Here is the input.
Amino acid sequence: MKGTHLGEFQEIVMLSILILDENAYGVTIQEEIDQRMKRKISRGALQTALTRLEEKGFITSAYGEPTAERGGRRKRYYQVSNRGIETLKEAKDLRQDMWKLIPKLA
Amino acid sequence: MKHPEVPSFAYRLFRWFCKETMFEELEGDLEESFLKNKETYGLSRARKIYTKEVLKMVRPTIMKRSNSGPIYGIALLSNYSTVAVRNLTKNKLFSAINIVGLAMSLAIGLLAIAFAAEMYTYDTFHEKGDRIYRITSARTNITEETDVYASASLYTAKRLKDYGGFEKIVPMYKGFYGDVALEEKLFAVEGLYVGEDFFSVFSFPLEYGDVKTALSEPFTAVISEDFAFKLFGKKNVVGEIFQKDEHSYTITGVARNAPRTSHLKFDVLASIVTVESLPDHDFLSKWGTMWMSYVYVLLPENYNMDQIMKNLGQLEAEENAMAERFQISLGMESLGSIFPSDGKYNQLRTVMPEKNVNRIIILAIIVLFSACFNYTNLSLARSLKRAKEVGIRKVVGANKIQLFGQFIFESLLISILALAVGYVFFLLIKPEFLTLDRYFARTTSLDLTVGIGLMFFGLTVLVGILAGFLPSLIMTRFKPSTILKGIHKMKVRKGVGMREIMTGLQFMFSMGFAILVILTYKQYHFAMNFDLGYDTEDVLNVELQGNDPDVLKAAFAEIPEIQSSSYCSFVASTGTTNSDYAKLPGSLDSAIAYNMSIDPAYIGTIGHRIIAGSNFTSATSEQQVIVNEQFVQRFQLGNAMDAIGTRIQFYDKTQTIVGVVKDFHYGTIRNELNPFVFLPGKTNKPHFVNLKIKSTDLIKTMEKLDEAWTSVDQQHEFKATFYDDQIALAYSALSSSMKTYGLLAIVAISISILGLLGMAVYTTESRIKELTIRKVLGASFTSMALLLSKNFIKIFVVASLVAIPVSYMLFKQTILTYSKYSINVGFWELGSGAILIIVIALITISSQTFKAAKTNPATNLRNE
Here is the structure.
């Protein structure tokens, strides 16, 4: 199941993209994760995760308009694909089912 | 493009390694974050974060992939080898020049590696080797001369015990030599008396016997496996007894044979306590008796060298205060620095001087460079021929690193081929090298090990890379646009200066070696024909080997070919000397006088001229001496006649001068003339019988002599050498230098001439049209030859201007400093070597011009 396997970090990246909605690109995703997770991640590490997710078809990306504050370079916006959303849900359901099966905590 | 405050190095690094598809996005993000960080944390922190982020980008998803994957690699390699082989076969002459030149120099390089590796493995097998030291003695005599000896007195060992600071002290005494007797049979032996801790310091395992107690009793001995086998025909011989000098020794152990790479070698190790019972014991236990004894120490794990040196200093101060004629200063020498040696006297066994090792290495490096230059030179000169290939390859997409790799690959191929040929050369010169002189013969085997084999290969690769580096670099720099527009417009300006320098250096080395050979040969010839002041011709010196000289003389007397016979304590003019202080009675003025003991017949046999007084009256005449002219002068005894009858103090006895001989050279050409004294008969133990022979059939005479010898001594073999041969042996260092330089001269000259031939062929080839047109227009052969050799002549002149003074300086330093008498070095001695090489070189160049000039012009001009 290598093709659909979702790592913890990758899951967080996808969730961040969904939270950011229209404004999901490198810097914002990085900040979102930094704030929520209270942990510093490097842009390089994020890029690896984004590349893998895109390879698996869980996210898509598109260039935006050039921005002055970026030295005229374009942003690359990310969106979670339907397949990605399904996979996220599957992961969530799997966990919920498992949570329910724990006798003492229920 | 980039924000001015972003760290530019990190930016450029990132741009260099980042995938182009990702660069815009990532660099944009980085810059945006950078600006935000600048506001929150300030500029310098933001810059730091930026750099850190860039460094964290170094990961496979982001980095560019190099475009030569493993699949291309193999295909390219096979293409490279095809091209390399084609190139090799296309230019057979150049390939041959390169391979033969490299092979010759590699052979020398292999020799140097095998030799140096062997020298530095000596004594590395001792487990406690890093803590073993030897005590050395620097002895200063009254003339203020200080010599450093590897030996130290047995007395020093005894005193050191009082000081402590050593874990073990092992005294050794070299006096165990001569013959060992076993039931009337004699065996020549080389042994040592050693302290009982010998085996706990050195790693010489015992096959039989107990390491701890083997050498604790007097007259006990441990013998080597080989020697045990020689004596008894078996190995376990513990408890057996042998005789040496009227004493019986009990064998308490059998030691495994010492490795060849041990500076300590022995047939027998006898216990040092035995020495206390030997007749020489009193003499041997003096502070000043340091000639044949050695002291090795094992230091404790955490030794304090300062304290040890302080102790040695205190010991020598105490003892020197009581010594009159000399001072000894003690030193320490680690086991690792014993072999090869830094030139200390009195080594225990033959030790290779370190300067020999260094000299061989330096000379090998010179020759190796010379051969690398050939390859570099020829490849550079011919680089344009490959230009089109480079152009096409670049256009098709080869990058610089790949092209560089290709050319290095080619030079590696050449050097590996050269290794195969060079190895054969190596095997051919190996026996010559091993017999260069006694140092090599006794210490070197040049046996190959896996490690040395690997080093051979390493050297080959190194040479390949070194030789190919420059041409590869220049060829990869060709620009495709220029090449493809037309090669004839290209000029390789850069390489030309380099090429001239390299050719110049090659010829400098060749000339230097040639000059050194000539100078050394002349000096050797000079030494061999030096007028010693007496006549050594047809004199045969017979080693007495312990026999009575009078008995032997009587035995030889019946042989008619012997004109006269005499005996002496040692053979003069071969390097051996003996000296003591002489003075006039009642005077304080003393001087060193060299001396030897002779019987009256010696003066006549050797042809000394007595200029005043007379010969000894008989061999037993006591208190008579014959002196030389120098002696008369030194003690201001007036003229030779006045000196007769003068009494002198010599060897603590009063002696009377009965005769004066004309000055003669008792030493080698290294020694100045000093006062000399002949002592009568057996004052010092005679060692040689001198026979003046007049024979038409030498072989038959030698047979008769052998027969006469056997009638006196059945135990030893007849050993005799002609005086002239013994003198030649004394100059073996000169003859070995001559051989070394000779071999290198041949190699260096061959390499440089080969290279020159290649260059000449190339120049003529590339200017063939020009030459032919000149010929058609009426140019003479001479003018054409001049045209081609003009540049070379310039190089030769510069090379000889450097080579001549440098090689003269070298000769002066290595050979002349040790000689009081030497050849006069004039123009011809120095110039002939250089001229010889220039002539050979010019012949090589003209041969090519000649070829060009002889060809029918039509052949060369037809196409175009």
Remarks:
- Residues 8-101 of chain A form a domain with the Arc Repressor Mutant, subunit A fold (CATH 1.10.10.10).
